[in-house]
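Hey, I was hoping to borrow your eyes for a little while. I've been staring at a protein lately and its backbone has me curious. You're getting the sequence in one-letter code plus the fold written as tokens. Would you mind checking whether the tokens look sensible for this chain? Here's the protein in full, and shout if anything looks odd to you:
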Amino acid sequence: MKMIQTDDAPQAIGPYSQGIKVDSGQMVFTAGQLGIDPQSGAFVSDDIAEQTAQALKNMQSVLLAAGADLSKVVKTTVFLKNISDFQAMNAVYAQFFSQHRPARSAVEAANLPKDALIEIEAIAVF
């Protein structure tokens, strides 16, 4: 196992890694990514679409640091503060996963870290 750490995604805010690469199985498990700008440490906006895009960009950065990318994602889990944001999230998500469509779960979560609107985690293989 190898812990993944990149400055191109927000730093972990607790006792966890941005991602874990499993060499024997060539798998990467990302931590949940928020819509936070890695440079400023602040949310990109209070808009679900913009937070979704940033969370997916952050996920891509973690995957790249592990030697993978979004095309290698086999499963994502999307946590939404408000499930009524699903359509807006889904429209942005579809831009990142247009041809390659990993399995996905989406659930409403009452309290996300830092009061985020969305958190997305992934499992990828390569």
